[in-house]
Amino acid sequence: MGGATAEKIAEDFRAKLGGKVVSCEVRSYKRIYAEVAPKDFPEVALYLWGDRKARFNIASGAQTPGGFEVLYHFSLNEGDERGVGAGDGVVFSVRIRTSEKEHPVLPSVAGKIKAFSFIERELHDLLGIAFDGHPDMKPLLRAEDWPEGFYPLRRTEKRAELDVGSKRGTGESGS
User: Could you give all domains of the chain from N- to C-terminal order, each with its CATH number?
Assistant: First the structure.
C-alpha cells in the first residue's frame, strides 16, 4: 500500500512539474528524492506546500566538492485533515545545488512561506549560503566573535576554529 502511494506522489510530482524536475526517484515506500534547478525550487516548494499540503520539516545543507547543496525535507501524511496531502507518512526530499564555491546563492522561499525563514538564516550563518529574496537575513546563530566570512561548517575552515576551548586558529588550548 505504502509503495503505491509513494509511486503515485512521485508520478503526480513529475506530471505537475514536468521539465522542472531534474530527477525524481522513489527509494523506499516512505522516501522520495527529487532534484530541481535552483531557479525552479520556489515553484516546487509552493506546489508541495500549497497543492500537496505537505509539511515542511527541515532543510539540511552541505558543502560538496562541486559547491553547495541544500536538501529540503517535506512530509505527507495519510488522513491529513486539510485533504489533498494524503501520503501515508512519505518523506519527500528535494535537492538544489550550486557550483559556486566562494559565494553561493540560492533562491529564498521565506517571502512566501514563513516556515523557511529560520532554516535559511541558519544555513547562511553556518555555511555562508545567501538566500536571494529572503525578507530578513539578519544573523540567527552567528557568535559575536566570528570574523567576517567565517562559516564553521565549511570544509575550508581549520578544525581548531571549531574546537570548543581552543584559541581561534591556533589549535592551542584556551584554558
Answer: 2-142 (3.30.460.80), 145-175 (no CATH)
